[in-house]
Specification:
The complex is a heterodimer of chains A (425) and B (307). In chain A, 30% of the residues lie in helices and 21% in strands. Chain A is built from 12 helices and 18 strands. Chain A has helices at residues 74-83, 102-115, 138-144, 159-172, 183-186, 195-200, 207-224, 236-247, 284-296, 311-314, 331-340, 347-362, and strands spanning 3-8, 21-26, 29-34, 43-46, 51-54, 56-61, 86-91, 119-122, 148-150, 175-178, 191-192, 204-205, 228-230, 252-256, 301-302, 378-388, 407-417, 420-424. Chain A starts with a strand and ends with a strand. Chain B is an alpha/beta fold and 307 residues long. Chain B has 2 domains: 16-135 and 290-302, Rossmann fold (3-Layer(aba) Sandwich); 137-287, Rossmann fold, CATH 3.40.50. Helix content of chain B is 40%, strand content 14%. In chain B, the strands form 2 sheets. Chain B has a 5-stranded parallel sheet, with helices on both faces. A 4-stranded parallel sheet of chain B has the order 2-1-3-4, sandwiched between helices. The longest helix of chain B has 19 residues, at 284-302. The chains are: A alpha/beta (425), B alpha/beta (307). Chains A and B meet through helix 6 of A and helix 4 of B.
Chain lengths: 425, 307
């Protein structure tokens, strides 16, 4: 027996189907799509009135395990992911120990399979221990299951080492994801440097800390004819640099997070530590530029940078609190509300940014499209359902969201991973 | 005009009328400190705790005397004897003190915004005695009180603030307060210690001390922390002093009724030369005297009692 989704209005990146279809999923694959399929002994979902999308893919999340299980585990993070409509997530290597050897990669994959809610792809560290000193055994890590490499949380500051990493990654055909931030320029800044930081006396992290690394990485990619993926872009100037690079045919892709196109640094004035994030919330001009860059293709995909922390970690004042906010459970609602309903992008483009493009960027060949032969990873949403974000509603261990209390329009109804219902509202 | 604030966290949150009410109230309290019996019963039975996580002599003593002259009971806690070293959070420490039925907590902490955590988490009044680089409202209030006393008004005055603007909570509180009361503020200091976008707070930026001294009715010199040189903001203290130190020969070239202020403690020979600090244009000790009156007014207003 399989899973039969009836009356599905399918949204792929190329179009919205105008007539409802039935989708049959068998053995983890989409096997048939037709206007009407026999129910047989299949499990049935009636998707009438909903929209049926390829499963969302988040290529930037922090699951904290191993090492920081008080913040999140692979199990709680997976639960948050499927609640947010994600069927595949990629977790960053800044765990303890760092994901810089095959044993940790295997642990994460094994634990994710035991949990069995969504696909979890560990991202390997670029440098051993993320110490910016020596490259990891990337080929071995690739063999263990890493599709991408990043020292996320910080840049590879040593420019020579970054160049070597890019050459090596090119040879192995794996993706390099760079967190763009020059720590010497950031110099301990805790929020965006600008009039707001000046007013409230918090240490500013200047825009150039991001843009000088964006520029360096673009130049390195150009020089080596290699590709690079730039994480969580937050600035208008970064978008302009990327736009220029793309116009030159340089192989650069980029991502943005919902908080960077929905909140400005004004959100920090109440010293709510859930607004402390890296890169920091920026100006209104930057927020508008990120939206524009998503719409015009400069930004290829949307990621969450889900970064759970405990209350104890965050309740120590703005300066001392760790960076990060949770995003898996609010991402779709924010994108629907602030981009789709607001007319910045349409639904197919949202599917591209949140499923097809991430699949393409990391090389998940059978994902990101609803089509016979592709993986049966499917997200069913009610695009018009309004709901209010609440602390109690989060299944993530982290409750550090600046969106608590906000009403969003667009909600996940079902998440289906490998043909199995892993979440229903 | 009635006072409506439970806390005093900063001058950013106050209206012009609020500030004028504090200054007016302070006037009547100044007289109390000049009496033979320096005490009024305004806050009898109230308990005021000073909770200082950063070193301070002047401000803490000033608050303590202010509370005592209003007949409140006072208790002083300094960070080295508090439990924060045992890992209690700021709010936990404050909540434990509050549990002993405290009416107001006067707090100094090195984190900007720390007073917000306390104001949100405590039932008692919170008075900010300096939070990080953000605000030091009573310092600005006593500066304004002194200006009003010396120059008769604040509206229309030209005030220069000289020094490390970037790290200065005194500068920020003064900018909020002085601009609300209609003064024109110019900030002056090395470009490396000038916070980004400061003009948008309604001030002018000028790097020429000579010009600022010439055009101002009063200057507030800020204390320069020695660590700023280690943090590479400055080439040397010598160079700083040459460009931004106020000495007598510079004052002689300026407007001769200019008054010189400083929140203390001064680095003599760095931001002020000794002859200026002790000279006839300096009102530094009067600022200290006025500090008690202003803090009496603040405690009296936030605790909401009537004489």
């Amino acid at each position: 027996m399989g899973l039969l989704i009836k009356n599905a209005i399918i949204v792929n990146a190329d179009k919205i189907w105008n007539k409802p279809q039935d989708i049959l999923c068998e053995d983890g694959k989409i096997t048939k799509i037709a206007p009407s399929l026999p129910s047989a002994d299949h499990e049935i979902i009636d998707a009438a009135g909903k929209k049926v999308l390829p499963g969302l893919i988040d290529i930037h999340t922090h699951l904290r395990q191993p090492g920081h299980e008080d913040k999140e585990t692979i199990e709680t993070g997976s639960r948050a992911a499927v609640k947010g409509g994600f069927t595949s997530i990629m977790c960053m290597p800044n765990t303890s120990p760092v994901i810089d050897n095959a044993m940790v990669v295997e642990f994460v994959i094994r634990e994710a399979m035991r949990v069995g809610l969504c696909h979890v792809y560990p991202i390997g560290a670029i440098t051993k221990g993320q110490q910016d000193g020596e490259l990891t055994d990337m080929a071995e890590l690739k063999g263990a299951g890493c599709l991408a490499f990043s020292d996320d949380g910080k840049s590879v500051v040593n420019s020579r080492l970054f160049r070597l990493a890019m050459e090596y990654a090119k040879m192995l055909d794996v993706l390099l994801i760079e967190h763009c931030q020059d720590p010497l320029l950031s110099a301990g800044g805790v929020m965006n440097e600008g009039i707001v930081s000046t007013r409230i006396g918090l240490k500013g992290d200047p825009a150039i800390a991001e843009t000088v690394i964006v520029a360096r990485d673009i130049e390195t990619a150009h020089y080596l004819n290699a590709r690079v993926h730039l994480a969580h872009m937050s600035l208008k100037r970064s978008c302009e640099l990327i736009r220029f690079a793309k116009s030159q045919g340089i192989q650069v892709t980029a991502e943005a997070c919902p908080h960077h196109f929905t909140l400005t640094d004004e959100a920090c004035v109440g010293f709510d530590t859930s607004t402390k994030v890296n890169p920091p919330l920026r100006s209104k001009e930057d927020v508008e530029a990120i939206k524009q860059a998503i719409a015009d293709g400069t930004i290829d995909c949307i990621v969450t940078d889900h970064a759970p922390h405990t209350k104890e970690d965050k309740e120590v004042g703005f300066d001392g609190a760790p960076f990060g906010l949770i995003g898996l459970e609010t991402s779709l609602g924010l994108v629907m509300t602030e981009l789709v309903h607001a007319g910045v992008i349409d639904l197919p483009k949202m599917v591209d940014k949140m499923s097809s493009a991430p699949a393409r960027i990391v090389g998940l060949a059978n994902k990101g499209v609803i089509k016979p032969g592709f993986d049966a990873d499917i997200t069913i949403i009610d695009p018009d359902c309004e709901w209010t974000v609440s602390e109690e509603g989060f299944v993530s261990k982290g409750k550090n969201s600046p969106f608590i209390g906000r009403t969003l329009k667009g909600k996940v109804e079902y998440t289906i991973c490998s043909g199995k219902i892993v979440y229903k509202t | 005009m009635a006072w409506t604030h439970k806390h005093l966290l900063g001058l950013q949150d106050l209206s012009r009328q609020d500030i004028e009410l504090i200054l007016e109230t302070a006037k009547s309290f100044k007289e109390v400190s000049s009496r033979d019996i320096k005490k009024v019963p305004a806050l009898r039975g109230k308990t005021v705790v000073t909770l200082f996580f950063e070193a301070s002599t002047r401000t803490r003593i000033s608050f303590e005397l202010a509370a005592k002259r209003l007949s409140a009971d006072t208790l002083n806690i300094a960070s080295n004897v508090s439990s924060t070293s045992k890992g209690e959070t700021l709010l936990d420490t404050a909540r434990n003190i509050e549990a002993m039925n405290v009416d107001a907590m006067v707090v100094r902490h090195s984190l900007s915004g720390s007073v917000f955590i306390l104001a949100q988490g405590l039932k008692c009044s919170v008075v900010n005695a300096g939070d990080g680089c953000r605000e030091h409202p009573t310092q600005a209030l006593l500066d304004m009180f002194t200006l009003q006393e010396k120059l008769g008004r604040i509206e229309g005055l030209k005030i220069g603030i000289v020094g490390d603007i970037l790290h200065s909570r005194v500068a920020r509180s003064n900018i909020w307060g002085l601009t609300k009361l209609g003064a024109r503020v110019t900030v002056c200091g090395p470009a490396t210690l000038m916070p980004r976008g400061i003009e948008q707070m309604g001030v002018e930026v000028c790097y020429d001390l000579k010009k600022v001294l010439k055009e101002s009715d009063a200057v507030i010199a800020l204390r320069l922390q020695k660590e700023r040189q280690q943090d590479k903001f400055l080439p040397s203290m010598r160079e700083y002093s040459r460009l931004f130190g106020i000495n007598q020969s510079r004052l002689d070239e300026a407007n001769n009724h200019l008054i010189v202020m400083h929140p203390g403690p001064t680095n003599r020979g760095v931001e002020l030369s000794a002859d200026v600090a002790d000279g006839k244009q300096s009102v530094i000790l009067e600022q200290v005297t006025n500090g008690v009156a202003v803090r009496m007014a603040v405690l009296y207003l936030v605790l909401g009692t009537k004489i």
